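Much of our argument rests on the idea that a fold can be written as discrete symbols. Part of our work consisted of pairing the sequence of a single chain with a tokenised description of its backbone. No coordinates are needed to read the tokens, only the vocabulary itself. The record that follows shows the chain in one-letter code together with its fold in token form.
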Amino acid sequence: MSYDTLTDFLEPINKHVISNDMGYSEKQIGKSIEIYEEGLPDLEEADIVFVGCKDQRGSGNFSESTAADAIRSEFYKLYHWHNDIKLADIGNVRTGKSISDTYAALKMVLQELMDAGKMVVVLGGSHDLTMAQYQAFADKKLLIDAAGIDAQIDINMDSPLRSDKFLLEILTSEPNYMNHYNHIGFQSYMVHPRMLETMDKLRFDCFRVGVVKENISEMEPVLRHSHMLSFDIAAIAHAFAPANSLTPNGLNGEEACTLMQYAGMSTHMSTIGIYGFQPEKDQYELTAKQISHMLWYLMDGRSRSKKEARTDERQYFNEYHTAFAEVETIFLQSKKTGRWWMQLPDKQIIACSYKDYLLASNNEIPERWLRAQERP
């Protein structure tokens, strides 16, 4: 499939409607972003490609979502600080006759752009659209690490809604291409204890929202290793995202932006989805503004990632040899960004944090090292 045939799956957008006929000034994102209006834009130079998806039938809502355009309206107003990051917006995926048709169309679009080395961001729709993100990798038999950010863990098989149980489908499908899954920001009182037991048996890691808020920098190595991210706005406290009517608690606005910045810094990250936003529940467009700020920080992270060296370019790293529990290992610290990596016994290098290095230096085994060793 060439870029030209992408239009079979897409609907163009109208920048005049999005800007409310106001237009954009020289440095605003709306002025420089390449947009699918009358014809598909040249995507060759694009670093990040945005695509909307209006299907929210998986959450029981049969009306088409206007979330993508509501986010665009706020995002395009922001100022473009990162001259090394080129943006494109290819409009919205056509909603299929069935939700499976929408999954298939979104998957095709994602695959084509990911194959071209683009980071693709899906805006709008219900959380089960994550299925299409996963299938874009699974169809190609690519083993991946993935992360989800959500107040809940969507493995509730008792629910009739696909958006409440899609995660179990992904994590237990055969053949399975999920090497590792990290769930960030769950709220304990909204998660059945047996769900956590199930995740632990699968050797997947779950981080309670309180743990994330106490030391958010520990989430950077988690996201650095991820190939895909699915972000449900239910993870953001109502005060910062009024359209989240699920819970008053959760991440604040700045924390949500920081996590997106970490996602942008990952050189592995190919696809990100931001789901669950219903503009009709929003107040003063604050949730749309919040998501637009998250996208700005994603750009900032992507810009930073371009400055990072590969771990085999050792001249750009400080190298520390240490031993803990009679295991000798190497820690690497980037001279460019200050980020950390550690070597496993099989010589594999994995992302870690300064905290992991301090633990190892005190002859303690870092939990991140242990969890990596437990996985097949």
